[in-house]
Each structure stands twice: as C-alpha cells, then as structure tokens.
UniProtKB/TrEMBL annotation:
Keywords: Hydrolase, Magnesium, Metal-binding
Coiled coil: none
Cofactor: Mg(2+)
InterPro entries tied to this protein: Inositol_monoP_metal-BS, Inositol_monophosphatase-like
Recorded GO MF terms: inositol monophosphate 1-phosphatase activity; metal ion binding
Protein name: Histidinol phosphate phosphatase
C-alpha cells in the first residue's frame, strides 16, 4: 500500500469510471425509486450504491484517509488526505432523465484540493485536473475563455430562483446572458471556455470540492461570494478570472451589501 498522491489519483480515476458505469445503468434502466431526505432533497439507490462503492475502495486501499460524502456520515482520517465526493451531483436532473448529472470526486491533501474530477457519463464529458498539471476534457487540455467584459458573457446559474430579480435585470442591461442547467455542468463549461462564469448561491462542500483545482488549472478563478478561496463557504462563483470581480459585485450584493461596500465598481 502506497501513501503517495499519484496512487490516490489513480484510484480516483478508477472510481470515477466505476461511478459512471453504475450511474448510467440506473439512468438507462427506467423508473427509479426516489426517497426524500430530511433536507428535502431526493436520493436514489444509485446515489447510495455509488458512494458506498467509493468508500469501500478508499478504505481498502488507504484506510487512514478521511472521507466525506453526501449520503453517509464522514470518516475521519490521520493520513493528511481526505476524499470529498458527490456520487450523483444533480440528482433531480438524474431522476427526470436529464443527462447532465455528474459524479464528483476531490482529493484534499492538507488544506489544499490537489485533484478534482467531474464525470458526466451520459453526456460523455470528463473534466479533471491535478494541481500544477493543467485541466483536461476527455484527455485534451482545455482553458477558460478570454472574455474580459460582462458584455456578451455567458453566466451559468444552478437555481435561478436563488437570484434576486434585480440582479438578473442588472446583468441583462450589461449584456450578460444567464443560462441555467448549472450544477457541475456549469463548472465544466467554464473550465472548457464555453461559458464565462457560473454562480451558485446555495451549496454543500461536496458540491464544490473539485471545482477550485479544475477552474484554477484551466486558468480561471474560484471563490465564494465574499471573495474567499474556499469551497465550503455555502456558495461559489467560478469564472475565467477576467470578469470575476465585476460579476461578483453584482451577484454578491444581495448577500453582502451594495457594490460600493464590496469595493468593486462595475
């Protein structure tokens, strides 16, 4: 048993492939049994089976690693490594037959996310990044867009109902196109340069854990809405970096105060 990063990343790639196979089997298998968790979100047998498969593999190969997932209690570790996974990101889309769900895996070393993967098996998209080695889409290097202004930009939104109508209108007047179908799909589109930013007002750590390394290795920027470079702050914004602060001034204003208080002049 090895304790190095490379072996863990190798396992993460294997687990993403296994998760993709399992989730596609459920997705293409017809009607699914859906339960509602205490927080009102849906869960399926696929969510639980995939996460349990990941947990078992990590425990067998790296028993001293920590593990955080959506469906089961956290496992503490003392190796300095922690796995953070969302077995099916976008479960609501998954159960409705929308092929934009994803399997998410992040590897944390100390305080830093050093590897992240967005696996979208039904869409045929895999976006992954290792710290210091760039970002890949289906094994081809990708990079964020070079759009430097809000005018003409594409901004993805996971839940449009989280947005203040005034913010949407303000962005529209600046020439921004806001598109939904966010979740991990939005972050993948930003990393690949197809969208310029994605905004999430309500998140859990496992929703965003892979995103800092993926977006940053693609040349972009990831923060939460108050500007901190954290994935566990309850919200997030990822962009090509060029429009980050200007966009953040608009979308963070309902939470943090007006744009002048944010210190940013759009």
């Amino acid at each position: 048993m090895s304790d190095n990063r490379a072996d863990r990343i190798g396992l993460a790639l294997e687990l993403a492939e296994r998760a993709g196979t399992l989730s596609k089997q459920y997705f293409e298998g017809g009607a699914m049994s859906v339960q509602t968790k205490h927080d009102g979100t849906p869960v399926t047998a696929a969510d639980r089976e995939i996460e349990q498969t990941m947990r078992d593999a990590v425990a067998a190969n790296f028993p001293d690693d920590g593990f955080v997932g959506e469906e089961f209690p956290d496992t503490q570790g003392d190796s300095g490594y922690r796995w953070i996974v969302d077995p099916i990101d976008g479960t609501k889309s998954f159960v409705r037959g929308v092929p934009l769900y994803a399997n998410l895996i992040a590897l944390q070393e100390g305080d830093e996310i050093v590897f992240g993967i967005i696996n979208m098996p039904s869409a045929g998209i895999v976006v992954r990044a290792e710290r210091g080695k760039g970002c890949l889409r289906n094994d081809v290097p990708v990079r964020v867009s070079d759009r430097a202004h809000l005018d003409g930009s594409y901004v993805m939104a996971t839940w449009l109902e989280d947005w203040e109508p005034d913010v949407v209108e303000d962005l529209r007047t600046q020439g921004v196109t806001v598109r939904t179908w966010g979740d991990a799909f939005g972050y993948a589109m930003v990393a690949c340069g197809f969208a310029d930013a994605v905004v999430d007002y309500t998140t859990q750590p496992y929703d965003l854990a892979p995103m800092p390394v993926i977006i940053e290795e693609a040349g972009g920027r990831f923060t939460n809405l108050d500007g901190r470079r954290v994935f566990d702050g309850g919200n997030g914004i990822a962009s090509n970096g060029l429009i980050h602060e200007t966009l953040r001034a608009y979308v963070a204003a309902p939470l943090l105060g007006n744009r002048e208080e944010l210190g940013v002049q759009p």
